[in-house]
User: Which sequence fits this backbone?
C-alpha cells in the first residue's frame, strides 16, 4: 500500500511537470504569437474590431480615459470597443465618445465558460492569467475581423523590458503600460477635460443635502482599496481614525466612502456610498479627499478637490515601487495631489499642516 501511494505521488508530480512542459513548449509560444499579431494590427491601424475587457474600478477608469483621449486626438479609430463590468456602467457618463459604443459583462466566469455564447463575438480571447491561458487557443475563429483582448494579458514583462532597454524607467507607469498595449504615444494625456453635467451636479448637491455635508468644508475619507489588502490593516485604519478626529476638531464635516465589500465607516464619520456618475462633482463640492491609493482616487484625481493620498511602501517589480507605477500626480498630470509613501505619521502631519 505504501509503495502504491509513493507511485501515485510520483505519477502526480510527473504529470504536473509534463503539463508545465507542454504549456511552455506549445501553448505559451502560440499565445505570444497571437499577442504580437494583435499588437501589430492595433499599431498599424487595422480594420479589425477589438473588444477590450477591462476590470476593477480604477483600471477601468484609466483605460477608458486613455481610449477617450486617443479617440479625441485621432490616435485610435472607433474599432476598439471596451467591455466593462456592469456595475461600473455609470462611469460612461465621463466618456462621451466611448459611451456611444460599449459592452458590459456581469461576472468573470462568463468569459471563461461561455465565450462561445457571446452573440457579437467568435474570435480569440487573449487575456490575463486570471483566465485560463489556453482558452484563446481553443476558440474557433469564424469572423477574423472580431478579436477580443484583455488589457492584462502577458505583456507586462515585454513592456518593462522595453522601458529598461530604452533607459526610460520613469515611464514605467500603469497608464503607459496601457498606452504601450494600444500602440498610442506616451504623451497622450490620461486626465479628462471634465465638463460638468448639470444633471449630475444637481444629483451631487441633492446627495450632499441628504447626508448633511457642507459645501467646501467636507472631507471625504477613502481608506479602503480592494486591490491592496494592506489598506485594511489595523495600523492604516488607525491612521484614518487619527485624521478623522483631527479634522473634526478643526470644524470639518468628515465622511467615509463605503461599499458592499467595505461597509464600516471610520469611527465618528458619516458613511456615504455615492453613485459613480457623481463622484467628480461630489469631490469638488466637498472640497477635500483623504485616501489610501485605490480606484476611487483615479476618479477623484480628475476633480478640483484637494487630494491627499497614502501609498504603501512596496515594490511590484525590481526598481519599480507601487508609488512609482501608480502615482496619480504623474498619471493624471496633477502636481497638486499631495502623495506620501510609507510614512503614516508624515501623512497625518501634512494633513494637519495644510487643512
Assistant:
Amino acid at each position: 500500500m505504501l509503495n502504491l501511494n509513493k507511485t501515485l505521488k510520483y505519477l502526480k508530480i510527473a504529470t504536473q511537470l509534463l503539463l508545465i512542459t507542454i504549456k511552455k513548449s506549445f501553448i505559451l509560444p502560440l499565445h505570444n504569437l497571437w499577442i504580437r499579431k494583435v499588437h501589430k494590427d492595433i499599431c498599424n491601424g487595422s480594420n479589425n474590431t477589438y473588444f477590450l475587457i477591462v476590470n476593477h474600478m480604477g483600471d477601468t477608469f484609466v483605460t477608458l480615459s486613455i481610449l477617450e483621449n486617443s479617440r479625441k486626438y485621432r490616435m485610435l479609430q472607433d474599432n476598439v470597443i471596451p467591455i466593462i463590468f456592469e456595475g461600473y456602467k455609470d462611469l460612461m457618463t465621463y466618456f462621451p465618445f466611448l459611451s456611444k459604443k460599449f459592452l458590459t459583462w456581469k461576472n468573470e466566469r462568463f468569459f471563461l465558460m461561455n465565450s462561445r455564447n457571446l452573440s457579437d463575438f467568435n474570435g480569440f480571447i487573449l487575456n490575463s492569467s486570471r483566465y485560463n491561458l489556453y482558452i484563446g487557443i481553443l476558440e474557433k475563429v469564424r469572423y477574423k475581423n472580431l478579436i477580443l483582448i484583455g488589457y492584462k494579458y502577458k505583456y507586462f514583462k515585454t513592456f518593462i523590458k522595453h522601458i529598461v532597454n530604452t533607459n526610460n524607467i520613469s515611464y514605467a507607469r500603469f497608464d503607459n503600460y496601457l498606452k504601450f498595449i494600444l500602440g498610442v504615444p506616451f504623451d497622450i494625456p490620461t486626465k479628462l477635460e471634465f465638463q460638468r453635467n448639470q444633471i449630475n451636479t444637481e444629483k451631487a448637491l441633492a446627495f450632499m443635502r441628504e447626508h448633511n455635508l457642507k459645501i467646501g468644508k467636507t472631507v471625504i475619507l477613502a481608506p479602503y482599496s480592494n486591490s491592496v489588502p494592506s489598506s485594511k490593516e489595523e495600523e492604516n485604519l488607525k491612521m484614518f481614525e487619527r485624521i478623522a478626529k483631527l479634522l473634526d476638531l478643526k470644524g470639518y464635516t468628515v465622511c467615509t466612502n463605503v461599499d458592499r465589500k467595505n461597509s464600516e465607516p471610520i469611527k465618528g464619520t458619516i458613511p456615504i456610498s455615492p453613485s459613480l456618475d457623481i463622484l467628480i462633482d461630489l469631490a469638488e463640492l466637498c472640497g477635500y479627499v483623504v485616501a489610501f491609493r485605490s480606484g476611487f482616487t483615479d476618479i477623484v484625481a480628475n476633480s478640483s478637490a484637494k487630494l491627499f493620498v497614502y501609498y504603501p511602501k512596496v515594490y511590484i517589480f525590481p526598481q519599480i515601487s507601487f508609488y512609482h507605477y501608480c502615482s496619480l500626480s504623474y498619471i493624471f498630470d496633477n502636481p497638486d495631489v499631495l502623495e506620501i509613501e510609507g510614512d503614516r505619521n508624515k501623512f497625518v502631519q501634512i494633513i494637519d499642516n495644510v487643512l
Q: What stands out?
A: Residues 2-182 form one domain. The longest helix spans residues 2-43. Residues 115 and 121 are 8 Å apart (CA to CA). The two ends are 72 Å apart (CA to CA).
